[in-house]
From TrEMBL:
Belongs to the short-chain dehydrogenases/reductases (SDR) family. It comes from Rhamnella rubrinervis. InterPro entries: NAD(P)-bd_dom_sf, Sc_DH/Rdtase_CS, SDR_fam. It holds the Pfam family adh_short_C2. It comes from the Eukaryota. This is Uncharacterized protein.
């Protein structure tokens, strides 16, 4: 008689996760992927209330909740984390993904600093607030948690326009590297995922292309055959969230079809 192997646990079995910017794009894809990979609960945080509530309802009310959160307001971020712990007893994963892009392409010479402040408030200050409060909750709960921040392929190179966006994403790498050193003793891992060009609504609006034109553009920006999709980024984030990466911290994981390496 052949011995039966014990059933394999799903990647995120029993874990409680927050996904900021989870109402659409990469955040939505990752929230769904977390649920599909066994997360006990996924909390979607966003300012797009109708979209976020619809995503949470489609995942399932017993497995997913939606909480309004503007990451530029630290009190809202703190409340988000506290509400998650109150609802589910712990926090294992923070995917700090909320972000915006430049409203216009800006060089150093023509940079509108009021728009710069708006972008930094979300992409840098908001990211720092999420890391801070997630790490505090994990430490207080004795959880060996995982914090993942969305950076960008532009976080490790310069760009001829979009100076403010590029600066904000470079700062995310600095935050991640410092936090990974500071939190390692508590067993809390901090990593980044850096997507290349993915066909999200935000990207299409920024580049000014139609949905049917997006795949061609995305394919041109990758040396791998095929098209970079939200699923590919969600796969990478799920790996970083899971115990499969239990000794991975301080990493910037590019998901870009070798775009950065080719620069």
């Amino acid at each position: 008689m052949t011995d039966l192997l014990p059933p394999m646990k799903s990647k995120l079995h029993g874990k409680v996760a927050i996904v900021t910017g989870g109402a659409s794009g990469i955040g939505e894809a990752t929230a769904r992927h977390f649920a599909d990979n066994g997360a006990r609960a996924v909390v979607i945080a966003d300012i797009q209330d109708d979209e976020g509530q619809n995503v949470a309802a489609s995942i399932g009310p017993h497995r997913c909740a939606y909480i309004h959160c503007d990451v530029t307001d630290e009190d809202q971020v703190k409340s988000l984390v506290e509400s998650t712990v109150s609802l589910y007893g712990r926090l294992d994963v923070m995917f700090s993904n909320a972000g915006i892009v430049s409203r216009k392409s800006q060089t150093v010479l023509d940079m509108d600093l009021s728009l710069f402040d708006e972008l930094i408030a979300v992409n840098t200050r908001g990211m720092a607030a999420c890391v801070k409060h997630a790490a505090r909750a994990m430490k207080e709960g004795g959880v060996r948690g995982s914090i993942i921040c969305t950076a960008s392929v532009l976080a490790s190179r310069g760009f001829d326009v979009g100076t403010d966006y590029t600066m904000s994403k470079h700062a995310v790498l600095g935050l991640m590297r410092s936090a990974s050193l500071q939190l390692a003793g508590d067993g809390i891992r901090v990593n980044c995922v850096s997507p290349g060009t993915v066909g999200t609504p935000l990207t299409r609006a920024t580049l000014g292309v139609k949905e049917e034109e997006m795949e061609t553009l995305v394919e041109k920006r990758s040396r791998l055959k095929g098209v970079l999709r939200k699923k590919h980024v969600a796969d990478a984030v799920t790996f970083l969230a899971s115990d499969e990466s239990e000794f991975v911290t301080g990493l910037d994981l590019a998901v870009d079809g070798v775009y950065v390496a080719a620069c």
